[in-house]
Input
Amino acid sequence: MIVFPGVSSSQVRYQYPSGGGVPMKKAILLFLLTVFSAALIAETVTLEYWMWDPSIKDKVEKAIAKFEETHPNIKVNLTVMEPKNYWPKMRTLAFTKKLPDVFNMSSGYLEEWAKNKFLLDLTDYVENDLDKDKFFFNLFEAGKRISGTDRYYAIPFALVVTVLYYNKDAFDEAGIPYPDENWTWDDFLDAAKRLTKDKDGDGEIDQWGFWFYGRYAHVESWIYANGGRLINRENMRFEPDENALEALKFLVSLVKEHKVAPMPKEMKGIRQQDVFPRGLAAMWVDGSWNIENNRRIIGDKFRWGIAPVPVGPHGSKDVAYGWPDFVAISATTKHPKEAWEFARFIAGEGLTLDMYMAGKIPSYKALTMSEEFDEVGKQPAEKGKVLRELASRKLLNSFTMGWSEWRGYGAAESMGLNGLIDAVLNGEMTFDEMLDQAYKNVNRVLKRYYK
Output
């Protein structure tokens, strides 16, 4: 009997034939095929992959099938959940050390999960087993900053940034050149004044020059465009610098002094993302992910475009406010090498543009640099050019542990910093009162996470 290493005698046995049996060469060949088949079966690795977007489940399944064709020793089981159910379930799995091998990861949780050692450190893989030229590598660096470490804990597969949405028809009517990357705050303010109109002469504004409230994407976009920051990363405390305060005061002046934007309470009952597409404001700064909603509501009612957020007097055109979505690997996976192979695939070459909602930017350059990404014939016409340029910038944001609580996000939007800024805009609190309360409220949260 012959026994091969790695194959037990219970898996395969063979006695050499004698007499008039099967010819020796044929018998050995059959034996070897049996051995290798058994070894292949024995070495097959099964990975669990969880993600948060049921709308692309079929497309992800096709991508997995493609991966399995080129990696016959790896099988991937897919689990898809609605976003509202995804994180409560994932958090439970994290604390019980039962996370799937590979899973989608949010920038908002990256620092917390990295520091709690839920995520596999991918630094060696990124530095030694990744073709960096195929990705917008600045997104990897953004992930490092968000994690609060000097290590890579996730692979970015998409990016969102904030942009200035503008109504081209309104600009044309007012005789204002369209905004571009060279626009300053003075250019913006001049346009906002000329675009704020009482069209029917009833004493009520029918078209505001601009729309915003205390929302993170509405406010931080201007802070980073002015070279500012809200959080002192040295001590992890809320300490807005002079550039941030300048941006906040500028925004408040749009409502209180220049009257080119409404008080937030004046838009009560209207979804914030519907104000611009309904023609109630001629300009609006928010996430690039709103492109799809704009297309659906505006249709062909008016022409509109996007541009970078105007740069402040102390800002730089090399910076953008935005953040990636990631694919991460569990620190407890039993198959780190195979998990890396799949994570790298499903964050890059395994994806197709029809897996991305309009306004999301693939981190894999072959997709973002393609003509298909431009969506020629659809609004906004500048989509490809503007988003590509923003994707190449240094990405900054205010994410920390406890961010959703101190910032006021989702169901807690009226609370946190969001609610305080709204109170100033609505005339319920002075700027200084807001700032004093923000120091207390935000740092109370941050002190729980950063001793």
In short: The domain at 45-156+324-379 is CATH 3.40.190.10 (D-Maltodextrin-Binding Protein; domain 2). The chain has three domains: 1-43, 45-156+324-379, 161-320+396-449. The radius of gyration is 27 Å. The chain has 18 helices and eleven strands.
